[in-house]
Design a protein that fits this description.
InterPro entries: MetalloPept_cat_dom_sf, Peptidase_M7. The structure is a single chain. This protein is α/β, with parallel strands linked by helices. The chain has a single domain (34-163), classed as 3-Layer(aba) Sandwich (Collagenase (Catalytic Domain)). The protein is 34% helix and 19% strand. It has a 6-stranded mixed sheet. Strand 4 (86-89) and strand 5 (95-100) form a beta hairpin. Helix 2 packs across helix 4. The longest helix has 17 residues, at 3-19. It is globular. It starts with a helix and ends with a strand. The relative contact order is 0.16. The model is unreliable at 1-29 and 167-177 (pLDDT under 50).
């Protein structure tokens, strides 16, 4: 084959996979999305509220996605009846969340509690002195606060922690965080 024919063959070898969607140029690839699985089966009285809390996070961030799964979940909800809602987590997408039914009976919003505790599993700390517009202000604003959506700043922080997968954070040891 002459050089002209070889050039055409090489062009076809490169162009054909791209045209068929078999390969993509590096610039066309999207940022990695980390999927975290949660189970709400241990909190049967709050299934819809937990799902809404996860949906609120999914609407606010793109680098991490919360998906419901009853088996092999890394974030697991449980109902308890005293002691306050809290999560045991390392902030790296793994944790046991305890939703206190007595707090709900006092008037705290269960969707806000669920979304707040998920925020800990996504790496956010409490900020009790914050306003109701901050999800991580938790119980600080009182029972009148029904906001269950993260603020733009909270969403941006989660985005920065999960960009292209979870980036290195503080020590990976478990920590208990109260609502």
């Amino acid at each position: 084959m002459n050089g002209r024919v070889m050039g055409r063959v090489a062009a076809l070898v490169i162009a054909a996979p791209l045209a068929l969607g078999l390969a993509t140029a590096p610039a066309a690839s999207a940022a990695a999305v980390t999927t975290l699985y949660y189970s709400s089966s241990g909190a049967p009285d709050y299934l819809a509220q937990i799902d809404q809390g996860a949906a609120n996070w999914n609407a606010a961030v793109t680098d991490v996605k919360l998906v419901k799964r009853n088996t092999s979940a890394t974030i697991v909800f449980h109902e308890i009846h005293s002691g306050g809602s809290y999560t045991n987590t390392n902030g790296h997408g793994r944790g046991q969340i305890y939703l206190d039914t007595s707090q709900v009976a006092e008037g705290f919003d269960p969707t806000r509690i669920a979304a707040h505790e998920l925020g800990h599993n996504l790496g956010l700390p409490d900020h009790y002195s914050g306003p109701c517009t901050e999800l991580m202000s938790g119980h600080g604003p009182g029972t009148a606060c029904k906001n269950a959506k993260p603020s733009a700043a909270e969403a941006a922080k989660v985005q920065s922690l999960w960009v292209n997968g979870l980036v290195a954070q503080a020590a990976a040891e478990n920590r208990a965080v109260a609502y």
